Every structure is written in structure tokens, then in C-alpha cells.
Amino acid sequence: MDADQFRQAAQSAIEEIIEHFNTLPSRRVLPNIEPGYLRPLLPQSPPKSPESWDQIQQDIESKIKPGLTHWQSPHFMAFFPALTTYPSILAEIYSAAFSAPAFNWLCSPACTELEIVVLDWVAQAIGLPECFHSTGPTRGGGVIQGSASEAVVTVMVAARERMLRDLATAEGLKEDTPEWEDRVMVLRGKLVAIGSDQAHSCTAKGARIVGTRYRTVPTALEDNFDMTGESVRKVLEECEAAGLIPYYITTTMGTTSTCATDRFAEIKAVLASRPSWQKIWVHIDAAYAGAALITPEYQPIAREWSTGIDSFNFNMHKWLLVNFDASCLFVRNRTDLTSAMDITPAYLRNPYSDRPDTVDFRNWQIPLGRRFRALKIWFVMRAYGLSGMKAFIYKGLHHGDVFVELFGGRKDLFTVVTPPAFGLTVFRISDEAAAAAGSASGALTRQVYEKINADGDIFITSSVVGGIYVMRVLSGSWLSEEKYVRNAFEIILKTTEEVLSGKPNGAEGPKN
Amino acid sequence: MDADQFRQAAQSAIEEIIEHFNTLPSRRVLPNIEPGYLRPLLPQSPPKSPESWDQIQQDIESKIKPGLTHWQSPHFMAFFPALTTYPSILAEIYSAAFSAPAFNWLCSPACTELEIVVLDWVAQAIGLPECFHSTGPTRGGGVIQGSASEAVVTVMVAARERMLRDLATAEGLKEDTPEWEDRVMVLRGKLVAIGSDQAHSCTAKGARIVGTRYRTVPTALEDNFDMTGESVRKVLEECEAAGLIPYYITTTMGTTSTCATDRFAEIKAVLASRPSWQKIWVHIDAAYAGAALITPEYQPIAREWSTGIDSFNFNMHKWLLVNFDASCLFVRNRTDLTSAMDITPAYLRNPYSDRPDTVDFRNWQIPLGRRFRALKIWFVMRAYGLSGMKAFIYKGLHHGDVFVELFGGRKDLFTVVTPPAFGLTVFRISDEAAAAAGSASGALTRQVYEKINADGDIFITSSVVGGIYVMRVLSGSWLSEEKYVRNAFEIILKTTEEVLSGKPNGAEGPKN
Question: Where, per the database record, does this protein carry N6-(pyridoxal phosphate)lysine (chains A, B) (predicted)?
Fold first, then answer.
């Protein structure tokens, strides 16, 4: 493909993408295909000779789009949003063109330096305390990770190594000796990571990856499923009584199932109450809800984090207008990361690699190479401005209010299970309606959920919290509007009535 | 930014990118800036109000490009290539537009299914044995990871968990019991991963991340720095004598420093010779050189892998025309991955999640979310065809031959240190020339290397192998041509003469 062919192909692709977004509201949000749909549509082997762009592009519409789940659709109410926007797409074009696995500063200085600057912009924009700015007093700073899961594994490794170094050093051992290695292997087997039973599954998976134990802190409906200080204390005491060494805790701002926020002040007070607990790495997972910190109303939450918090993470690629992947991880002390992650062979050394004023981000992450992801944060922050980003978050919060009002108007049918938060509404079929239909709320809620997604006009998520089967809806997509919220409620209402009455009720398709 | 603004912005971006590639040969490959260059050029805080695309785009040329290291430049001879191509850029545009963290099949079936199909295409194209095809007899298959490092960590976790499960089960323990957990923690402390001293540093880093010990197998110049069967046997015996349990080995096709290829047949024979060694996970890291398997000349190497190999990885984003990130990992048995990585909470369950005919790739990797990376492999394979991909690899191999011929013509000045392989030439200043200049080869080689990169007209890498300081050159970039190889040799030659004579010699800039 030469430059002229590329120009033509790119123009055609851009037109197709514009048309895609323009027509998205009238498309089904969920694909209407069964597993294995694609293989019969494609050749069994790669082509021997080059194909033209026309041939390739045709297959996007005919073979790929029928299998897409449209996360940008205004009918997408599942999980959390995962946005893309025009400025973010533009940045990906440049990122692909400037492609470089920029593992060292020297391997593409602009990639490293723009990341440092824009993450300081982000830290300012969401009101993070100074300790998380690259210019702050604690050698902190931000780094873009691929996902919150990757960020969690990264800080768990840093936490584990910091704790082991502390313990082995306190025993008088010397690093890089056989005695150190043997002792560290024994101590590692006693380490335990902690998270609430509402923490995202990436913490349990992270504990498995880094090879430590994991214990969950129970939460309760009466606490809104927040993790409380006392519940943390109880688990820490149980761990210590069993001879285990807690080294890491995930606290959450906006849990996956219900958007609960853990009680940071209480938990910090508990951790401060014993010297051994003061060494525990405290991570804040705000993957979705962290975006709300861009509004002044939420920023007081972040002020609490100026002490006692080792790391904070949120995904701009969820609610803050940047496309996947842009998971922003901030640490209080970068040396915690680099001490754990830095392995520098001869071929990665260069005259800049040991200078104190250069950052080699490969030592802040699991992979070696890295894409130029700072560009998309930079483009989005500039194209929207703080005003545009705030306005977008307010819109999502408003949609949550609309949902709450709508569900509140039908208390006969629906029970809102937890306090609505960050635009998320968690509900179930009311006990009253279930009893009238001669069934249990859980079974009916599940039936309604499965029917809605099988119909595929809107896409929602179910979960089980505190033993309660719930549905959750959230309207934060790029193209979302209040009319789609109301339309979604109508679909939920009709499907519920249909399930309760036991007969089909002709649920409507999406309104445009 | 509305659709019209996006259309205009994208057209302008595309023109800029075409112009960028057209003018790349006349640009310095290395930027001419010092650490910290960017911050003073940017505002200290994000903009309050939206900025126009013109304002944003201007800064690409004036602020970003001066800080880029041009991996696509034909003057880039460092590390390994990391290509981008026009079809690959087109795919990134669609990937950004269809953005979705497609962690489950249901979360975007096309994303999962295209990945399965194109990785089968890739497996066919590079002649991988059937056991690595998704349709093969061993429940194998491929998955796209972000980088070879990520792939290595992933298979190390799978290897560790498989070994621990085997050992604990053999002791009669039951999974999910406190006894199992305690015993596994003790056993884990005895596990040791193995790689040669030429294996990429990601294996040592991986061992640290997954929390096991690591031992290196020494290599020697007389074996071309290949890892041999006997050297593996010796390390395995030492480990077992020390009470350790080897569970994982990285073998390499094309090591980073010299492109050595480990002796797979010998190593397999050693591993087969003891029951405890038969359980060791064998990974092949072919991050760069694996691309050469697309030519029939190299495919016999892969035939050896039909037995005794658990996983294979190569990066299409190095030499095979796909932009970073597209690291293709193939496993012999997918259950090894999913048994280690699958943690499925309620909110990730759906009617498809337990069906045997669906694949949830989140259980094949560390992160939860994943980008639609299969598109770029698909586009590139179709736009180039197998014929175009082969032709490109032959070109890189030819450039290696040209380098070898040029260095061979100046044996008075240069010694080629290891057999040239996969287009890579590893050389140093000859002992004869060093003696004549009254210095040692290592010191002079380093001086020449540092001067070449400081001049910045070509970019090369140095390394230390077997205690020998070497330079390495490789011309495999998208825009590479033989004339740039000859130009690079002239620069190396002139700089060497200058360093040897102790006076500046006026090395030329790049020729276009």
C-alpha cells in the first residue's frame, strides 16, 4: 500500500467510522450471532497474494460489524462505560504512525516526557494530593498502564518486594546472598493481600499472579457494601493470629457491583494503629468512579489521600472520554516501583539510563515496550477542556438521577438495592411484586435480566451482592442522552411486566 | 469535536503522516534534545476551555516530533525493528472507533473470534505444528499479548500453577483447603525458573514478578552463545542438588544480543531424560527472529516443536509489518492458562461464559480488558499477502548479508563476533586495530558506539556478550533500503577511523 492508496483508504475508513457513529443509535447494541459465527465467513488460510483495500474494507461491514458489541451505543447500560471519542481516535492514528516500543527515555523521549506532563495535568484535574504529582515532595508520579488489572499486579509486586526487603533487612540479612533468597522465599509464603468481597476480581487474580495468599474482608448491605475500618481490623487480626503477614490492601472508590466507596478515613485509622500495619501498601482502585473527581463536588474525597495511601488508579478509558487503553496509575514514591521492577541488562543501558533526571517507564510496569498512549490523553484534555470534561461527567450523573426517579416511581415493581452512586442504579424486582407473581425476587430478577439481554435492544449487567441477585444500569456512553435512559426504563418496565404476568408483552426496539 | 471537524482533522492528520514518512529519511533518527526538553514547552495545567484541532495539531510538529526517536527511519539500526505500516495504521483507526474492553466473548464476539482465526492464519504462515493451532489435537491456540514480556509472565504463572497443582495433588492434598494453601506456599518457595545468560531480561523480571527463584544457564562464545543441552543438564542438576524444583525454562530463537538460537533438540532430550524434568514448562521466545519462520528456509526449525514445547511467542510488531502491540503467544494446551488465570465473579458471568465453544480471552492473560488487536494482523496479512510478507523478510536478511560483506572487507578494523543471523551483525574493533591505536578493543568499541549515537545520524545498540563489548547493527525498518545499509557502514567506518586516529574526521549526515 503506497501513500496514495493509504490516503484514499484512510478517507474511506474515516467516512465509514463517521457513518458508524451516526447510525449507532438505530443498531442493536448486542450482536445477533452465535459463538463460532465468524470462522465460516473467512478463508481458512491467509491470502498468498496482496488484496486491495476495497476487498478488506468490505469485510468490516459484512463480517466484523455483525459481531460487535457496541460499547459506544447509547443503549449500552452494562458494566461501566468504555468510551471512545473523535480526538482520542486522532491520537491513536498518530500513535500508530510514531510506533515505537518506547521502553527507555532515549527510545522516544517525547513519549516518556509527554506522559509525565499529562499525568501531572490529570492529577491536577482530579484534585489528587501533591504526593502523586511528579513534581511533588515524595518522588511520586503517574504512569499509564494498559488496564486497572495490570496496575494492581504492578503495585502488588512493588508492595510485596518492599515488605520482604523491610522484613529481611530487619533480620540483619544482606541482599543478593543465598541466605537472603532462602529467607525471602519463606517470608513470601506468609504474605497475604487483602480486599473487600466487593473489590474487583483483579485483586484476587493479582494475588494469584504475584504468588501470595489473599483474604477478603466481608461487607454488608447495612453498610452499603462499603469496606469499614472495623471489618478491616478484624481480618488483619485474624491474619496475624494465623501467623500471616498482611502486605497489601485494595480499597475501592466505586465498586464494580454497586459503586460503593470504602471508608478511607476509618481504614487509615485502623492501619495507623499498629506499627506492622503501617507498612501495608494501600492502593485505591477508582477504575470507573475516579473520573467523577474532575468535578469540584467530589474532590474532597481525594484530599483524604494526602497521607497513608501508596497508590491510586483510575481508567480514563472508562468514563473520561479517552479510548481503551489509558489506565492512570499514580504512586506516592516511584522508588517502590523501580526497586521491584528494574532489571537492566547491558543492551538496555545508554548514557541517559542512569541519569537522575530521566525516567525509564519500563521500570514502572510489567511489560518492557509501551505504546505512545499519552497522546490521546493530551488530545482529549485539550479538545474538551476541563469544562467539557466536567460537563460530560455531569451528564452521566444526571442520567443516574433520571433512572433513580423512574425506578422510584414504580416502587410496586422495583426495589433500588443500594444508594445510587456515580450514575449507577442497582435494583431488583420488589418482594411485593414477586410475591404477587408467586415467585422469589431473585429468580424473577434473573429472568428479566436474561430476557432483556436476549432481546438485545439494551445491554445491562446482573450481579449478586450480599446474596441478592440484582440488575445494574448505567448510562455513560459518549452518545448517551436522557431519551435513551427513558427508553431503557420502558424496556425494563415492559420486560418486567411481561415476566411477572408470564406472557409476552411486545417489548419495543430502541428509539432513535 | 463534531463529525465534520473530525473529518477535517483526520484528513489533515493523514496528510501529515504521509509527509512524515516521506521526509523521514532526511530527518535525524535520534532526537537532538536533552532530558526535560518538553515540560517548558507546555502549559503547566490542562486548558480550562476546549482548544481547536489546529492548535493541537501544530504542537505535533513543533513539540512532539523534535522528541521522537524514529524507529521507522531507514537509519534506525538499533535493538530490533519495531515496524508500522499503512494497513496497520488503518486497523488502529477502526480499533479505536470500535473501542471495547472485550474481556468476554459476549463483550464483543468479533474481537475474540477474529483473534482466533487470524492466529490460526499466523500459525499456518510460520509453519507452527498443529498443537499450537486452535483447531489442533491438544486444545492449543494463540492469543495476542501486548508484549513478549507480558507473554512470558503469563506462561510463567501458568507453569508455576501447573507444577504446584501436580506436586500438591501427588501428596494427596485437596484443592481449596487450608492444608493445600500452606503446602503450596512452601513448595512455591522452592520453585526455580531457568533461562540462559543470553535470554531476554524479561525472564529474570518475570521470575521476580511471579515470585520464584531464577537461575541462569551459562553460554559460551565457542557455542555461538547458544544454550546447549549439557549446560541445561548441569544447571538442572545443581538446582535439584540444592533442593530446588525447576518448573520453567525460556529457550530462545534469536537472542537479543547476538540472535543466537538455543539447541532445542539437545535441550528437549535432556528434559526428557528424567520424569521430574518432563514436567518443566518449555517456552520459546522468538520475539524478533520468529518472523523469519514465514520463509520456507526457516520452517524446519519449527517442526521440532511438535512435541516437548509448551508455548511459543513472537512479536509481529517487531519485524512482521504490524505496529506495536501484537505479540503472538501460542500454547499447546489452553487449559494450562485458564486454570491459572480464571477468576470469574458474578458480574462477569453471562449465558455464554460457561459454554465450551466460547473463549473468554481474559483467562489467557494478565489484564481483564483487551483492545481489538486482531484487526491489524488481519489487515496486514491481507494487504501484503504471504508473498509480500516473505519478500519483506528476505529484504531484511539481504541487508544483513550486505553488512557482513562490508565488515568482512575491513577485517583490519572490524571483527565480526558471532555468526550473523536473522539480519543481525555483531562486531567490535579488531584487536589488531586496537593494538595499533594503543588501546583495548572494548574501550574503543564503546567509544565508537557512543560517538555514533551522539552524532545521531544512525542509531545502533551496544551490548556485552561473554565479557566482550560489542556493537550490533540490523536494518529491518519498513523504509530500509540497501543504500542506507551502505551509508550506515560508511558512518561506522569513518567514526572508527576518527576514534582510532584520535581526531575528528567529519562523519557525513544521512543520505536520502
Answer: 318
pLDDT (tens digit, 9 = 90+) per residue, A100-145? Answer: 999 999 999 999 999 999 999 999 999 999 999 999 999 999 999 9
CB-CB contact of B259 with B422 (8 Å): yes
- The C-alpha atoms of residue A160 and residue A346 are separated, in whole angstroms, by 27
The sign of the torsion formed by the CA atoms of B165, B170, B174, B178 equals: negative
* Each residue's pLDDT tens digit, A343-392: 877 777 777 777 777 899 999 999 999 999 999 999 999 999 999 999 99
Determine contact, residues B365/B154, Cβ cutoff 8 Å.
Answer: yes
Give the integer Cα–Cα distance in Å for A210 and A422.
Answer: 32
So what's the ipTM on this one?
A: 0.96
* DSSP strand pairing (A191-196 vs A245-252): parallel
Q: Which residues of A touch B323 (CB under 8 A)?
A: 96, 99
> Is residue A189 within 8 angstroms of chain B, CB to CB?
yes
Give the CATH class of A1-30+69-89+386-512.
Answer: alpha beta
B94/A contact by beta carbon, under 8 A: yes
* Least Cα separation, residue B229 to chain A (angstroms): 24
DSSP string, B251-274: EEBS-TTT--B--HHHHHHHHHTS
What's the CA gap between B457 and B206, in Å, rounded? 35
**Which cell numbers hold the place of B444?**
574503543
Query: What's the rounded Cα separation, in Å, for the pair A74 and B462?
Result: 53
Question: Alpha-carbon distance A311 to A314, whole Å?
Answer: 10
Cα angle B191-B194-B199, degrees, rounded to a multiple of 5: 150
Which residues in chain A touch residue B383, judged by CB atoms under 8 angstroms apart?
1, 50-51, 53, 56
Q: Yes or no: is domain A146-358 CATH 3.40.640.10?
A: yes
Distances (CA, A) of B94 to B36, B125, B417: 34, 24, 45
Taking the domain B100-371, which CATH number applies? 3.40.640.10
Q: Does B153 touch chain A (CB under 8 A)?
A: yes
CA–CA min distance A3, chain B (Å): 6
| CB proximity B22 to A under 8 Å | yes
Q: Which three cell numbers stand for residue A67?
A: 459481531
Q: Which amino acid is at A4?
A: D
Name the residue type at position B26: S
What letter would DSSP give residue B61? I
Is residue A165 within 8 Å of residue A187, measured between CB atoms?
no
DSSP strand pairing (B245-252 vs B191-196)? parallel
Domain boundaries defined on chain A: 1-30+69-89+386-512, 146-358
A442 touches chain B (CB under 8 A): no
| Closest in A10, A46, A462 to B125, CB measured | A46
